[in-house]
Structures are given as structure tokens and as C-alpha cells.
Amino acid sequence: MLQTIVPEAYKIDFLDVPVPKVGNDQVLIKIKRVGICGSDIQVYHGKHKYMTFPIVQGHEVAGIITEVGKNIERFKIGDKVTVQPQNVCGKCYPCSIGRYNVCENLRVMGIHDPGMCVEYFLVNASKVLKLPNDMEFDTGALVEPTAVGVHAVKKIGEIKGSNVVVLGAGAIGNLTAQAAKALGANKVMITDIKDKRLDIAKNSDIDYCINTMKVDLGDAIKEHFGSKGADAIIDCAAVKATINQAIYNARRASKIIVVGNFKEKIEIEMPMLQRQEIDLIGVMMYIEEDFKDAINLLQENKIKTDGIITNYFDIRQFKEAYDYIDNHMDDVIKVMLKLED
Question: Most buried of 3, 55, 148, 217 (most Cβ within 10 A)?
Fold first, then answer.
């Protein structure tokens, strides 16, 4: 079978390896779609802090089960599925309270452990979630990033009636903004400095789409949310400008949720957080409930995916996909790798 591997930064090898044998508690999945996300790009560039080469990438996927282990009853051959790509110890304190997404020994498939940029992927059935039979593979591969958004929104707490600002209108930002609306937010604003991304956000029925190169964020919040301001600001862009933008424009007694993956240390205005009692909350991935909610929201069309996938490449064009991303950052939202249908 085909296996892709990144042996070092900016290099991808294609290997022919045996199809793995299925254990009693495992399933074998024929991978159909693999999404490329920001953390994948960091790995490819050799800039991800928590990985080492070589690595098989791929953690946003959809596929079909082709074989099941002897102990597996809840899946059958032909089921459409996705994978929750977290390997956890189940013994540390976070795991003991159900917060295994911050397991002390967390290993993420495609980052620390082998991922799913392969023809066939062998995985413990406990990591697999069934997709609706009529769900497209494209949509199935967007469940993982949608789950990120769902988890982030839940960190706000009581979302119903809230005003939410999302900084960054890439794939994660768009899906997070839509998740906020779908889960009961009153009004949702999304910001970016690229009009193309904001145009896609407008088509996703997000209430206010603001280019912060043209409009001051504070002015936009005041205009659209009035004196109450934003109950929460979610940073999906993860650059120095946006986190400080969030701090300077956060309302007293509000929340800032950090979703984006920062590449470097950032200085922030800590006294403003203290004096205004702003909660600064980090977000790490998701739990299974978030995956299930993401599947339901996508299936019910409460989260729209039109326009989010901007480009497709065959799996053997993996390097060309990265080259395209590097050369067209202003145009790319989500690049999807296709395996044989």
C-alpha cells in the first residue's frame, strides 16, 4: 500500500509498504480524504515545537472500514468513518477527570505518532466515529477541524445570547464562528485582513465579517454589539497582533479563548487582564463529545462547508499541495488530499 512520510522539512517520500494486519480490537480504514491544516504546514516547514522527523502526517480524515477485528461489534465493513487522532494514557490526572485532550502523555496522530496519509490506516476502534451514510467524504474530513471549533465555543460557558468575536477567517476560524452561531450565540463577528476569506464567511451566514485592515475592531464591536460589547473573543489566528487586539478590545468580565497555534513566545498586556478580570483560556483539541456534536451540526447543515475547501490534490501530489499553499497563502482556506475513490 502507499505510505507518505516526511523525513525532514520540505521533503516527502512515497513508500510501498504492506497493508497492516488487523488486531482483535482494531479496524482497518481505506482513507479517502485527508485535510491539510496549519499544524501540518508547521510540521512540513520543520517549525512545529512538539514533533520530530520522520513522521507520517494526516489527522483530518474520512474513509471506509474494510476490515474489523474479532472483538468489534459496533462497526462493520463499509461503514463511513472518521478518526479522533489522540493517543492518551488514561492514567494521569487530566485523563481521570475526562480532560484527556490535555493528557500529560498526549500523542497526536500525524504529529507525534504515525498519521493517516496512507492508503490504509490501522487504528484501535475506540478512536473511530461513524459518519452518516449520506455524508460526503469531503464533509467527513472536516469533522476534526469542526470539533476544534465546537470545543472552543464550549469554553465560553453559557453561549446562548452571547456576542462572540472570532479573529481569523481561515478554516478553523470560519468553522468556530459557525459553531458559535449553531450552539446559540446571539451575534457572531469574524475578522480577517483578507477579503476572500471574509467573502466565504459571509456565505456561511456569519453575522458580521470585518476586515480589520479597513475597520478598527473596537469600532466594529461598538457598532454591532453596542455597549455590552463582546462576551468572548476567540483568537484563531494566533499572531502577536491578534492576541493583543483581543486584549485591548475585550470587555471587562469577558473571556478570551486562544485556539490558534502560536509559533513563538508572545508578550501580552497582562495588567489589562488583571484589572478588567478577563479570563484568558487556552484550548487544546477536543473530546469525543465535541466530535459527535460536530458530526451532527454538519449533517444538519447548521455548519456550512461551501467554499471552505479551496483546492484538491491527489495524494501523490502531496508536495505540490504544500508548494501551492506556500505560494498562494492569500487564496487558500482548506486544501484536501484525495485518495482513489
Answer: 148
Return the number of other C-beta atoms located less than 10 Å from residue 161's C-beta: 10
Grid coordinates given for 274: 488583571
What would the pLDDT profile of 89-148 be if each residue is shown by its tens digit?
999 999 999 999 999 999 999 999 999 999 999 999 999 999 999 999 999 999 999 999
Strand partners, 67: 28
DSSP letters along 323-335, please? HHHHH-TTT-SEE
Could you report how far apart the first and last alpha carbons of the chain are, in Å?
15
Q: Are strands 60-68 and 80-83 parallel, antiparallel or unpaired?
A: antiparallel
Q: Delimit the domains of the chain by residue range.
A: 2-142+308-338, 150-282
**Other Cβ atoms within 10 Å of 272 Cβ, number:** 14
One-letter amino acid for residue 303 of the chain? I
CA distance 188 to 99: 27
What is the DSSP annotation of 150-198?
A: HHHHHTTS--TT-EEEEE--SHHHHHHHHHHHHTT-SEEEEEES-HHHH
Topology, domain 150-282:
Rossmann fold (3.40.50)
* Angle between helix 171-182 and 288-299 (nearest 10): 80
* Stated length of the chain: 341
Q: What is the pLDDT of residue 265?
A: 87
Q: Do domains 2-142+308-338 and 150-282 have the same CATH topology?
A: no
Q: Helix (H, G, I), strand (E, B), or coil: what is residue 279?
A: strand
CATH for 2-142+308-338, among 1.10.1130.10, 3.40.50.150, 3.50.50.60, 3.90.180.10? 3.90.180.10
- Give the contacts of 232 (CB within 8 A, at least 6 positions apart): 156, 162, 163, 164, 165, 254, 255, 256, 257
